[in-house]
């Protein structure tokens, strides 16, 4: 499936009676890279979870390739081309690396697993290890690779760099950049490592209490010291 655009219109969602995402509208053109930034608790994870169909939606549309999937359950959204790699790294601990990858293949032939190994050679070395035996970085690679094997047209990545050593972060960001450059995927990245996210993205939204407080090009955000300090709580970016 080629990359598809994602268009979000007046989206509101939350948990039980509580609204967490408020009236959000933005669009991500096919093949582009959107970074979602914001301080802790501002709604970044909830936004991705809402797109994936895992929160309570109060209103609004989510168009994937022009089709509104907002009322569809998670599984139908995945079939429509939405890939979601949650912050929790949903690796099956009692399955081997290879078995975890096979789960992601959907109806593709088993040989497609090699694509995951080409992207993350470390997974090939560990292919007979159990999910529970992997390091944090390897689990992140596995979780990401499994999603990618399903050939999503839009990929949602929630804090993939969390807790990882700088060298692994670089490896992962390089893999994401390659995916984005292939033109096969539209990517939405939630990340606390602001500089990595800005280096990767071609557009940025910054959330504040469930709303979009700033949006624009990464270079413009880096130059807007007041916004960076107010919305991200850091003194400055290089
Ligand atoms: N399952 C849940 N049930 C109820 N409230 C929740 C749930 N998950 C998150 N929230 C609330 O929603 C708000 C947004 O949280 P969310 O995790 O989306 O923020 P975030 O920007 O991803 O934060 P972080 O950077 O800390 O991961 C917070 O007030 C949080 O307490």
Automatic annotation (TrEMBL):
CDD domains, sorted: ABC_TM1139_LivF_branched (cd03224)
Superkingdom of origin organism: Bacteria
The UniProt record lists the keyword tRNA-binding: no
Stored Pfam families: ABC_tran (PF00005)
Matching InterPro entries: AAA+_ATPase, ABC_transporter-like_ATP-bd, BCAA_Transport_ATP-bd_LivF, P-loop_NTPase
GO MF term (any one): ATP hydrolysis activity
Keywords: Amino-acid transport, ATP-binding, Nucleotide-binding, Transport
Keyword presence, Transport: yes
GO biological process, one term: L-amino acid transport
Ranges for domain ABC transporter: 6-234
Family indicated by similarity: Belongs to the ABC transporter superfamily.
Name of this protein: ABC transporter ATP-binding protein
